[in-house]
Amino acid sequence: MTTTHSFIAGQDVASADTYDNIDPATGQSLGAVSRGGAAEVDQAVTSGAAAQREWARTTPEHRSDRLTAWAALVDRDAEELARLESEDTGKPLSQARTDSTVAARYLRFYAHAIDSYYGLTIPKGPDLHAYTLREPFGVVGSVIAWNYPMQLFSRSVAAAVATGNASVVKPADETPRTAVALARLAVEAGIPAGIVNVVTGTGAEAGAALTAHPGVGHLSFVGSTEVGSLIAHAAAERVVPTVLELGGKSAQLVFADADLTAASEAVVRGVLQNAGQTCSAGSRLIVHRDVQDELLDLVVQRFRTTTIGPGSEDLDLGPLVSAKQQQRVEGFMDDLAGGELLVGGSRPEGEHLSAGAYFSPTLVHGVDPQGRLAQEEVFGPVIASMTFDEEDEAVALANSTAYGLLAAVWTDNLSRGHRLASALRAGQVFVNNYGAGGGVELPFGGWGKSGYGREKGYEALDAFTQTKTVVVKL
Ligand code: NAD
């Protein structure tokens, strides 16, 4: 078994201490991980700053070429990257393969986008020439979660590097290997050493050191609301901007005129994908009374026939990322907020699953909208379901949590779809679909406790740059 080290200035950098990378399907170690801290972060930021000055002076065309080459290498190694991702996270192999594909798509999207990212000219009359430049921050830090390691890495790093920044990434403690592999490929693609750096380690050590480092000019974070708040405090101390992508409790609203087959499939997929450990998981179902029995039946049938096993077997549902996460999900079953358990609610049976961090697909109907199960993010394959009669009631239920990441409306009435798209408090609203396959091109981020700022799409280019206004007297 090998040790995964930090990757700084194009080199593996070992730390004095290591910890075990635990396979969530077996509880066994997949290898050791270097436990980086303040020294490794400082080394990464210093080499990032040294490399960034030249990188920012290259043409957008050059950066575009390098990002395109990087994407091709990710495609070349897609199968190996997917295997590492599946082992680290527990997710089924085909979902990890999608993550490799999407990682390459982010690199390509920002490679294309940077070629057409312009400032403005501002009319000030014949004597003044005023224009804006979008300039990089310098070294930017990204602290990311374990649920989509490759996607989160590449969406943040691709936009940062395309706009002329150097990146230092702290991957999640549980899932360091694909971040290091992707950074290595960046160097192979001709991106100068030091532009893409990874410091492995724990949040309290490497993560906190990165957020506190005076050489980091922008912070982006994906993770829990609690840690996001800590990061925002650390950023405020040094007055640096942040993008926070935090949790969610996203609702799927199903009206009586909806295509129930399509809706039920999206409801199932929306919470089984990545075992529900998706910030945008559709973890609340808000269903019209007239169709609730039919819809709930469809979901229960699909949950009962879900196949469960290690990521390598590529079934419907893999383990949660860790035993800790499994216990957390289980803890929600102690109080069903007055709801009725229709299916699931426990660890699945079977000798071969007993050592893994598995949890059965779970549907609880009729929960108190203010109860914990309806309000808090479970981050597991668990749906809290509620009934409504009137449209206003559905909107009020959907908007009744502190989060605001995604919402979906299932209806045959397009006017209602648009009306609700405006009324729902969420960063993304889908009508008769859910998630649009990840949506590299779609600005993504939260309202309320789901965070602020946007990544993905063109908006990430704005996030990773600052405007300079230049006024010349002619
Ligand atoms: P977490 O907040 O504990 O950890 C996220 C990252 O922060 C990890 O890399 C961790 O090492 C680091 N970290 C922890 N403590 C830190 C500290 N004091 N200083 C700096 N860094 C620190 O979250 P988690 O439990 O690993 O991930 C699950 C959460 O992430 C869920 O709440 C989920 O909704 C959220 N999430 C959000 C999005 C999104 O895009 N909105 C995407 C994925 C996950």
State the gist of this model.
This protein has 474 residues and is of the alpha/beta class. It has 15 helices and 21 strands.
Descriptors:
six-stranded mixed beta sheet, 474 residues, 2 domains, binds nicotinamide-adenine-dinucleotide, seven-stranded mixed beta sheet
Structural description of this entry:
By secondary structure, this protein is an alpha/beta fold. It folds into 2 domains: 6-246 and 450-473, Aldehyde Dehydrogenase, Chain A, domain 1, CATH 3.40.605.10; 251-439, 3-Layer(aba) Sandwich (Aldehyde Dehydrogenase, Chain A, domain 2). It has helices at 38-57, 60-76, 78-89, 93-114, 149-162, 177-188, 203-212, 225-238, 260-272, 292-304, 323-331, 372-375, 391-398, 414-423, 459-463, and strands at 3-4, 6-8, 11-13, 18-22, 29-34, 121-123, 128-136, 139-143, 166-170, 196-198, 218-222, 242-245, 251-254, 284-288, 340-343, 362-365, 382-388, 406-410, 428-431, 451-452, 465-473. The strands form 5 sheets. Strands 15-16-17-14-13-18-19 form a 7-stranded mixed β-sheet, with helices on both faces. A hairpin with a 6-residue loop joins strand 4 and strand 5 (29-34). The structure holds nicotinamide-adenine-dinucleotide (NAD). Residues 143-147, 170, 172-173, 202-204, 207-208, 211, 222-224, 227, 230-231, 245-248, 279, 377, 379, 451 line the site of nicotinamide-adenine-dinucleotide.
